[in-house]
Design brief:
Structural class: alpha/beta
Helix content: 40-55%
Order of helices and strands: EHEHEHHEHEHEHEHEHEHEHEEH
Largest sheet: 4 strands, parallel
Shape: flat
Strand content: 15-25%
Number of helices: 12
Radius of gyration: 22 Å
Length: 307
């Protein structure tokens, strides 16, 4: 079987930077943790867990882990304190975290907090903070995104006023129709579809009494990856998307290709591929989400080529 592999499959810039920072902490030694999964890929998370990196799911988890440090802080010698044995080197996940959570963690004793938020996500957070400030009162944020995604939790925490979140453009547009005199800011989760975002933008500009502030927060890498996948799909019999099933950008990549009536399978690794699916396939496209290691894409490519 012939395999057409995406040149953009695998780690994006933000993921690569986050893992580089985590590698540096692991090499340095001591207690290392991340606040939330550093990225959405189970194989990467398992690899770091084996290296002793702890993933904290909440502020309470961090506080519980610090209890022994408080107990021993009075008795342990100064040399060990300087060596960081009473300190957790805690890295903020690539998706970012809510503003209030970050502030709280920075003020916790025995925690050295470092930021691995993707630069594009950080830019979006800061842009939302500035744009929603308003001159007299805060502006309303309309966010095109998935309400349950951790990146979105972080983004809306920077809004100065109220916010509306939805992955459904019609719901955001319907809100604008009801509140046409309200001053609004439109932004998006960095991995959303730019074409849909542009549609929302046009509708808001036509509906609202005052022009909305439009924040171009969608990452170019996401759009380029999606465009390449669609281009490949036009020339193949089926598509394989490799990536974590908790990864928003990976799921959207698969959904986008499938929406063009291309038989599509989303798997986390080559082990999940079933030969029966490819019985009549002579040419297959292969792409991957932004948090998928190259090794997993390589493995899938080798297996597909052997069939």
């Amino acid at each position: 079987m012939e395999v057409i592999r995406s040149e953009r499959a695998g780690f994006c810039m933000g993921v690569a930077l986050a893992l580089k920072k985590l590698d540096m902490l692991v090499e340095k030694g001591g207690h290392v943790g991340t606040f939330g999964p550093i990225i959405h890929n189970p194989f990467v998370l398992e690899e770091y867990a084996l290296k002793g990196v702890r993933c904290f799911g909440s502020v309470q988890d961090v506080k519980d882990a610090l209890e022994p440090f408080y107990v021993f802080s009075e008795t342990i010698d100064e040399k060990k304190k300087k060596e960081g044995q009473l300190q957790i080197n805690l890295l903020i996940r690539a998706h970012g975290i809510p503003n209030s959570t970050e502030s709280f963690l920075r003020n916790l004793p025995h925690v050295c907090l470092m930021d691995a938020t993707c630069p594009r996500v950080k830019e979006a957070q800061n842009a939302i903070s500035k744009a929603t400030q308003g001159d007299e009162k805060p502006w309303t944020l309309l966010l095109f995104g998935d309400a349950n995604h951790p990146e979105v939790d972080g983004l809306v925490s920077y809004a100065k006023g109220k916010y509306i979140i939805s992955p459904d453009p019609e719901k955001l547009i319907a809100y604008a129709r009801k509140k046409e005199r309200e001053q609004m800011v439109l932004a998006a989760q960095t991995t959303q579809d730019r074409g849909v975002f542009d549609t929302i933008k046009r509708e808001l500009c036509a509906i609202l009494s005052s022009p909305p502030v439009i924040l171009e927060t969608i990452c170019d890498a996401t759009k380029l990856r999606q465009d390449e996948a669609l281009a490949i799909a036009e020339d193949v019999d089926a598509m394989v998307v490799i990536g974590g099933k908790e990864s928003g950008n990976t799921k959207r990549l698969a959904e986008l290709v499938f929406s063009k009536n291309i038989p599509t399978v989303l798997v986390e690794s080559a082990d999940e591929l079933k030969r029966e699916f490819f019985k009549t396939v002579k040419k297959v496209g292969l792409t991957a989400g932004a948090s998928t290691p190259k090794s997993l894409v390589d493995e899938a490519e080798r297996l597909l080529m052997s069939w």
